[in-house]
Specification:
Blueprint lengths: L2 H15 L4 E8 L3 E2 L3 E3 L14 E10 L24 E10 L7 E5 L3 H12 L8 E5 L12 E4 L1 H8 L3 H7 L1 E2 L2 E6 L4 E6 H4 L5 E2 L2 E2 L2 E4 H10 L6 E2 L4 E6 L4 E5 L10 E4 L6 H9 L7 E13 L10 E7 L2 E8 L6 E9 L12 E2 L2 H10 L4 H8 L3 E9 L12 E3 L2 H4 L8 H16 L9 H30 L4 H16 L1 H10 L4
Parallel strand pairs: 4-5, 6-7, 6-18, 7-15, 10-20, 18-25
Antiparallel strand pairs: 1-2, 1-3, 1-4, 8-14, 9-14, 10-11, 12-13, 16-17, 19-22, 19-24, 20-21, 21-22, 23-24
Helix pairs in contact: 2-6, 2-11, 3-11, 8-9, 11-12
Length: about 500
C-alpha cells in the first residue's frame, strides 16, 4: 500500500522527462526502504546498477502516449511476486498505464512571416486555444520588416484567414482580383479570365469572393495586431535548436537560451534552420538547383501603371521573357508592381532575404530587349525599390517532422517557384491545418506525433503537385525563339478551352 504515494511521483517523473513508452521503476529493499523514482530506459538492464542498488522488490510503471486516464489513480497497488532477474531482484511488479494525451502547451514558432503569424493566430483561436498556454514567435529582424518583398495574390489563403475572423481586415488591405489578361508583346490576346465569375463557394466568404492582391507588409501588420502583446519576439535570431529531457530549447544569436517548449514549428523560410535539424535526423536533402530563370521585381507608387480596373492583372509574353503587372493592396499603402521573368543562365543568387538591389537600368534594358510595352518601362523608372531573385528549385522533403518535437510549414517545408503565385497561400493553409490537427490531440488523434503525421498527409500531396506545376509553368513562360512562338500558340488554344481558369482554381481552392 505504501507504494501508491511513490507511484504518483514515478508517473510524474516519467511524464516530465520522456515521451513514448518507457519504464519508470520505483526501487526499494527491506533494509533501506523505498528509493526515489528512477527512469529506466527500455534497454537498460538492472544488472548494470551498482551493487548498492540490489533490490528485494521492483515496481515498474510503463507509460505511453495513448488516450485514456491513469487506471491506478485513487487505488492501491497490489504487489505480486515475479521471478524476473532472480539474481538481482526477488520480486517484481509491472504495471502499464496510459498517459492522457493532450495538445502541446508550450509552442515556439521560428519565423515572423505570414506563415508563422498565421500559425500562432490559428493555434490560439482554434479549439478554444488548442490547449496552448505559451506561444512565442521568434523573429530575427528588429521589426516585422515593412518593405520586405512586394505584393502577392491571396485566394486559398484568404479563405483560411476569413475562417480565422479576418474577413473585414482583408477587405481593408486587399485589392480584389477581377481579371487576368494575357497578351503577347504585340498586343495579341492569349487568354482572359474573369476571376469573380469562376470562384466556387470555397473561395467565397458570406457570398463575397475572397481573391485579393495584398502587400506583404500589410498582411503581416494585420496578423500581428491579432496576437497578444509580447507573443512576437523581435531581434530574436535562432541559431540552434536542441532537445532536452523534457522538451526543446532554442539558442539565440545574443547568446541566450529560450524557455523549454513541447513543440518547435519552423516557419523560417528557404534557409530554414529548423529544416536542417529535421533533415539531419531523417534523410539528407539535395541542395537547391538554379532553374535558369531570373526575376526582377519593381515596386512603384500606386497609379504608375495604367489599366482599366485596379483589380486587373496583366501578363505580357515576349522572346525569352514574361512580365506580370498588377496592383498590390490599395489606398496609401497600395503599390503597382512588376515581375519580369527572363531566361538567364548566369546562376543568379536566390536572395532569400529579399535584399534591395540597384538593377533599375538592367531591368529597363531587359524589358526593352524583350520588346515589352513602354508602360512597363515607365513603371520601372518610377519604382521605389528593385529586387533581383534567382529562382532555385528545391526538392520535396520525405518528412516535415523529426517525430513529435520539430515540424515544418511553408517555405521551410516546400519552397516553391513563384510561377503559380501560391507560396503564401499554401503556407497559410499549412498553418491552419497544423493548428487544427494539434488541437485534436486527445480526441481525433492519440498523440501529438499522430496529429503531425495527419497534417503531413493532408498537405504534402497538394504542395508537391503545385511545386512541379510551377516548375513547368516557369519553363514554358520564359521560352525563346521558336519555343516562344509555340508557347503563344499553346496559351491561345488553352484560353479558348478555358484551361487557364481551371488551373487557377486547381491551385487556389484550399485543401486543409
Amino acid at each position: 500500500a505504501r507504494a501508491s504515494s511513490w507511484l504518483f511521483k514515478a508517473l510524474e517523473t516519467s511524464q516530465k522527462r520522456t515521451q513514448g513508452a518507457v519504464d519508470v521503476q520505483v526501487l526499494f529493499n527491506r533494509d533501506r526502504g523505498f528509493r526515489h523514482p528512477k527512469v529506466i530506459q527500455p534497454n537498460q538492464h538492472t544488472s548494470r546498477m551498482a551493487p548498492s542498488m540490489a533490490l528485494n522488490h521492483r515496481l515498474i510503471i510503463s507509460t505511453s502516449n495513448h488516450r485514456g486516464t491513469n487506471s491506478f489513480v485513487g487505488g492501491r497497488i497490489p504487489l505480486k511476486p515475479h521471478r524476473a532477474y532472480p539474481l538481482r531482484c526477488a520480486r517484481e511488479t509491472r504495471l502499464r498505464v496510459s498517459a492522457s494525451a493532450a495538445p502541446p502547451k508550450r509552442v515556439a514558432v521560428v519565423g515572423g512571416g505570414p506563415a508563422g503569424l498565421t500559425f500562432a493566430l490559428a493555434l490560439s483561436k482554434l479549439n478554444n486555444g488548442a490547449g496552448a498556454e505559451n506561444i512565442q514567435v521568434f523573429e530575427q529582424y528588429g521589426s516585422l520588416k515593412p518593405t520586405l518583398g512586394a505584393g502577392f495574390n491571396i485566394n486559398g489563403g484568404a479563405a483560411i484567414l476569413c475562417k480565422l475572423g479576418l474577413d473585414k481586415e482583408l477587405k481593408e488591405i486587399g485589392n480584389p482580383m477581377q481579371r487576368v489578361l494575357a497578351r503577347t508583346v504585340t498586343g495579341d490576346p492569349l487568354f482572359d479570365v474573369n476571376i469573380p465569375k469562376i470562384l466556387p463557394d470555397s473561395l467565397k466568404f458570406n457570398g463575397d469572393p475572397v481573391a485579393y492582391t495584398v502587400m506583404r507588409s500589410d498582411l503581416q501588420a494585420v496578423l500581428e495586431s491579432k496576437l497578444p502583446e509580447g507573443m512576437v519576439r523581435t531581434s530574436a535570431q535562432v541559431i540552434d535548436v536542441f532537445e532536452t529531457g523534457m522538451g526543446v530549447r532554442l539558442r539565440l544569436a545574443d547568446g541566450s537560451t529560450s524557455d523549454e517548449f513541447d513543440l518547435v514549428v519552423g516557419c523560417d523560410g528557404i534557409r530554414s534552420l529548423i529544416r536542417a535539424a529535421v533533415t539531419n535526423s531523417t534523410a539528407p536533402v539535395a541542395a537547391p538547383v538554379y532553374s535558369g530563370i531570373r526575376i526582377l521585381f519593381a515596386v512603384a507608387p500606386l497609379g504608375t501603371y495604367p489599366k482599366a480596373d485596379p483589380g486587373e492583372v496583366h501578363q505580357w509574353f515576349g522572346d525569352g521573357a514574361y512580365a506580370l503587372a498588377y496592383s498590390g493592396g490599395k489606398g496609401e499603402r497600395g503599390r503597382d508592381m512588376l515581375a519580369l521573368c527572363v531566361a538567364d543562365g548566369s546562376k543568379v543568387a536566390e536572395n532569400e532575404a529579399w535584399a534591395e538591389g540597384s538593377g533599375r537600368e538592367q531591368c529597363t534594358a531587359m524589358l526593352q530587349a524583350a520588346a515589352m510595352p513602354e508602360e512597363l518601362v515607365d513603371l520601372v523608372g518610377a519604382s521605389e525599390r528593385i529586387f533581383d531573385i534567382g529562382v532555385h528549385y528545391h526538392n520535396t522533403l520525405p518528412r516535415w517532422t523529426n517525430g513529435s518535437k520539430l515540424v515544418l510549414l511553408g517555405d521551410s517545408a516546400h519552397a516553391m517557384p513563384p510561377f503559380m503565385g501560391q507560396g503564401a497561400n499554401q503556407a497559410i493553409q499549412d498553418a491552419y491545418c497544423l493548428a487544427e490537427k494539434l488541437g485534436q490531440v486527445g480526441g481525433e488523434y492519440e498523440s501529438m506525433e499522430e496529429a503531425i503525421v495527419a497534417y503531413e498527409k493532408v498537405r504534402q500531396v497538394p504542395t508537391a503537385a503545385i511545386m512541379q506545376i510551377s516548375r513547368l509553368n516557369g519553363w514554358i513562360e520564359t521560352q525563346g525563339g521558336i519555343g516562344a512562338t509555340l508557347r503563344d500558340l499553346l496559351f491561345k488554344v488553352l484560353g479558348v478551352l478555358g484551361i487557364p481558369a481551371q488551373i487557377f482554381l486547381q491551385n487556389a481552392v484550399p485543401r486543409v
